[in-house]
Design goal:
This protein is of the alpha+beta class. It has 8 helices and 8 strands. Strand 3 and strand 4 form a beta hairpin. Helix 1 packs antiparallel against helix 2 and helix 6 crosses helix 7. The relative contact order is 0.08. It folds into 3 domains: about 100 residues, Helix Hairpins (Orthogonal Bundle), CATH 1.10.287; about 50 residues, SH3 type barrels; about 90 residues, Alpha-Beta Plaits, CATH 3.30.70.
Length: about 270
């Protein structure tokens, strides 16, 4: 090919694609500047909404990535590059990753919901299915519990959000309740006296609230009785143990007996 023809071809390409490339470069530089501003503004917005500290960097990075991908696609389209194939490839890759990691992504989504809506917090006592423990850490994929015996339980966040949970919140007053089957001939006034005598022996109980006694049922041989005392959420288990110990003593001091056929189940 002759030099003049090559020069003419290059000149034609410059006039054809040069303006598009120049505009694309300007858009790219200005777009990245705008993305930084938007990402910072989004981070300040999350901070103002008091989004959890462990989630804020993730959301900010995710928003920054979305802004940049959108910008690059816009710039590529302005430069005359076909973006349909890129979008199709990206969608196929995202779909494949989603199928491979659907369990982990479910736990991740549940972790985001937990950290956003805060159905419980660190320090609360949580019961999930057959597991119960104190929440020591809420991670993006799982929640860590410590039982009263010191065992660590790691529960996937998906398991927490898929069913009902029991949350005993720290610092919140609640009742520690036990059920006893007593001899049906037990005088109620004597039972109330024994229960009232037990309250001062329970260190974690709220002494300004009354201990409650409710007779739930009665038969020829036994009387089903619920006894509850107020305490704070973080002291629930200790209060239950102390309540059993105190009632054992105060009932014995007044010769109040458990129902004989159920004595083995209740000890």
């Amino acid at each position: 090919m002759e030099p003049n023809k090559i020069l003419d071809k290059v000149t034609d390409l410059i006039f054809l694609y040069g303006p598009k490339i120049l505009i694309a470069a300007i858009l790219l530089v200005g777009g990245f500047w705008l993305v930084r501003k938007l990402s910072r503004a989004f981070d300040h917005f999350l901070k103002a909404r008091r989004v959890d500290e462990s989630l804020r960097p993730f959301f900010t990075s995710l928003a920054d990535m979305i802004f940049k991908i959108t910008l690059i696609l816009m710039v590529a389209s302005t430069a005359g590059i076909e973006t349909t194939s890129f979008i199709a490839i990206f969608s196929a890759i995202a779909f494949s990753i989603g199928l491979a990691l659907q369990g982990s992504l479910g736990n991740f989504a549940s972790g985001v919901l937990i950290l956003l809506f805060r159905p419980f917090k660190v320090g609360d006592w949580l019961t999930v299915g057959e597991y119960m423990g104190k929440v020591v850490e809420i991670q993006i994929f799982s929640t860590l519990l410590i039982t009263d015996t010191g065992k660590k339980i790691i529960i996937p966040n998906g398991k927490i959000t898929e069913g009902p949970i029991q949350n005993i919140a720290e610092g919140v007053p609640l009742q520690a309740e036990i059920t006893l089957l007593l001899n049906a001939k037990t005088p109620l006034d004597l039972l109330h006296e024994a229960v009232l005598a037990a309250l001062p022996r329970i260190p974690m109980a709220l002494q300004d609230r009354e201990i409650e006694v409710k007779v739930r049922g009665i038969s020829r041989d036994d009387m089903k009785t619920d006894i509850s005392v107020w305490t704070l959420g973080e002291h629930h288990e200790e209060t239950l143990n102390a309540l059993y110990e105190a009632l054992r003593d105060t009932l014995a001091e007044r010769d109040i007996e458990l129902a004989k056929e159920r004595r083995r189940d209740l000890v």
